[in-house]
Amino acid sequence: MRAAAEDLGYVRDALAGGMRNRRTRTVGVLGVRVLSTPYAVAMIDAILSACAELGWSVLLTDSGGEPEPTRRAVRELRSRRVDVIVHAAMYHQQVRVPAELDNVAVLNGFADRDDVVGVVPDEEAAARAAVTHLLELGHRRIGHLTQDVCAVAIGMRRAAYETTLREAGITPDPDLVIAAGQHPEQADAGARRLLDRQNRPTAVFCYNDGMAAGVYRTAAALGISIPEQLSVVGFDDLRLISTNLAPQLTTMRLPHYEMADWLVRRLIHDDLPEPAGIHRFPCDLIVRNSTAPAPPGA
């Protein structure tokens, strides 16, 4: 009978089967401005790969983080009888998880509810690793180019940058911390404030790879060579940027794939940690050619 069904092109109705056994073996992904961004690629790849391996389906939707679209997205997921929900954020942030949702966990963020598990990058450890890498190369005057918006990761990375300098016996210089907008012309302007001065830094730790690209452009305009005269470390390892800069960028790789794979498997197997809390994943330092020993006499 199975062979005959296959010959006829029969496809199992997962929803009908779910009504009988109360499970559809479906993971719902509720995005918060994430599914259309480059940052989503690794997370969605991990979810799709794990579900394919385990024989589960995936239903994707994105609410944009607004209340009414979120309510509509939740109703849609519930109407499809998804078994578990991954609430995915574009960047490290607090996520409002509707009270009516259960069997849910937050990916790349943390919930506004104490009973919901969240997974995030270990921002502070990653920033410490980036600055330590520059210190080990002999740099003592290290700048930090960050963004001028309010975000959890911004404060964590700056605090870790300053703590790491202090632990190395260096008093952080507030003049070496420049906040700028995220658009290219704003990143360039921030980089110029950092580099177009006497006694400029010999290295810059950047909030993300986009800011690092601004340092590259500005250094080229000022005749500063990378890495001979200036070392640069980014954050994200967004390949469209990090591997297309010349020289290729040393950066911290966000663990989006690892976080998503761990979370979706735990949800599917009903094996989330208790009590719920925030679980931090390490970021890897990817050393390429934008960092080198500090210039002699620096």
List SSEs in N-to-C order.
HHEHEHEEEHEHEHEHEHEHEE
Instruction: Kindly report the spatial arrangement of strands forming the biggest sheet.
Output: 2-1-3-4-5-11
User: Shape from CA axes?
Assistant: elongated
Radius of gyration using CA atoms only: 23 Å
Estimated helix fraction = 25-40%
CATH H-level superfamily title of the largest domain: Response regulator
Query: Ranges with pLDDT <50 over ≥5 residues?
Result: 1-21
Number of helices: 10
Total number of beta strands: 12
CATH architecture of the largest domain: 3-Layer(aba) Sandwich
Structural class: alpha/beta
CATH class of the largest domain: Alpha Beta
Task: Write down the CATH topology of the largest domain.
Answer: Rossmann fold
Through-space gap between termini: 79 Å
How many structural domains can be distinguished in the coordinates?
Answer: 2
Mean of all residue-level pLDDT scores: 91
β-strand percent reads 15-25%
Q: Biggest β-sheet, characterized? A: 6 strands, parallel
